[in-house]
Amino acid sequence: MRPRWILAWLLAASTPVGAASPVWLAGTEIGPDTTYAYAGVVAPVGSGSPLGDGWFQRYWLDWLRYTYEGAADEVEARAPGAEAAWGYQWPLAGGKLGVSAGAVYRHTTLDPSRAESAVQGARWGAKLQAAGRTTPGPWRLRGIVSYVVGIDAYWGRLRAFRGHGPSLWPGAEVVALGDPEYQAVQLGAILGQVPLGPGRRLTLKAGARLDGADGATPYAGVELAWGAGGSS
Fold first, then answer.
1. What is the predicted pLDDT for the residue at 13?
2. pTM for this structure?
């Protein structure tokens, strides 16, 4: 991505329309064959209330690297991307549910280059996403699933925490992700609500990724949320 293009997206993400109390998000995940990093913001639409039920907006920048076995050799993919989306969130019994839709841009470079690749090059897509949370008894469940029309990529995650209030939340996660040329499943342990100060919370995670080619490989990551409502 060109520096001027990246700067334009960063400016958009730093000034969400009418935002009264945005939640800022950043993190990274690293493994032997994969690297992912992101920075984004979620904010209410309008200036009258904090982020909660109702309309919201999301702006996102990320960078993805992964390797997979091609027909004759190993292929490395590098894929920076950006996203802008609007959505709506409403309360459910013991939790919330939100849906959103927006535009996604991703530019994938393959080494070695593959002219027949379905993901190589610059591509635009329409991203559909749903996210929910609920609190049955001592548990906190978090689920999110997304699909990008036009890029044919999917991503889904389910997390289960045990804990309430400001205490640390131990838990577990399962993640499924893929596109036309790569699919994987992750299983890991997580620790949420690690305090970093008022409105700032850190989530730590580690586990194994299974992609069908290299067997199980380790991954580890950190996630940071801050602002009104910042939590795991």
1. 44
2. 0.84
